[in-house]
Amino acid sequence: MVITIEVKTEKVKNMITGYIRTIPEATARGSFELARFGAKQLKIQAMAAGIKPWGGGNRKLFSRQTRAKKAGKGVWQIVMPLHGKFLDSMRPHWVSLKRGRLITKWAKDKGITAGSIFVRPHPFVASAVTVINQNAKRIIEKEINRTIRRKGKR
To answer: Taking a C-beta distance cutoff of 8 angstroms, is the pair 51, 62 a contact?
Structure first.
């Protein structure tokens, strides 16, 4: 008794062709999801570092402007306002409370009557990058596995 197993190469070829086309697309989608996750983590870590909305809405503006942006074909980047970088990495220093400055209005609202205040950085970028690096492989593999489960279909 002989058992024969017949494999139709046309079906296998079609399936492999589907994977060849869709897996690179899945990695591109995965990198987009990673960039979105990174933007979200920057916002979360900024709040955890004590950056709060006040007055002109700098925290609200920071949340709205921190996002994933396409930089090229298959390349995504996280865009963050420049004042976020300054809040993360500035040197501790004294700031004079002169008329017309937003910080003067903030100090007055808080009941501070001195002529100057001491400000310090609110580091949050390094902790966000750590969380992003810990989850990068999982996020990209999730998109690739989703594509494989769909058998190479979009």
So the answer is: yes
* pLDDT over 70 percentage in the chain: 88
Closest CA to 27 of 151, 131, 139, 130: 139
| Cα angle, residue 28 at apex, residues 24 and 33 outer, rounded to 5° | 140
pLDDT range class, residue 34, cuts 50, 70, 90: very high
Structure tokens at 69: 């942006």
Q: What is the pTM of this model?
A: 0.74
In this structure, are residues 143 and 11 in contact, taking their beta carbons and an 8 Å threshold?
no
- The DSSP string of the chain is --------HHHHHHHHHHHHHHHHHHHHHHHHHHHHHHHHHHHHHHHHTT----TTTHHHHHHHH-EEEEEETTEEEEE--HHHHHHHHPPPEEEE--TT-HHHHHHHHHT--SSEEEE-----HHHHHHHHHHHHHHHHHHHHHHHHHTTT--
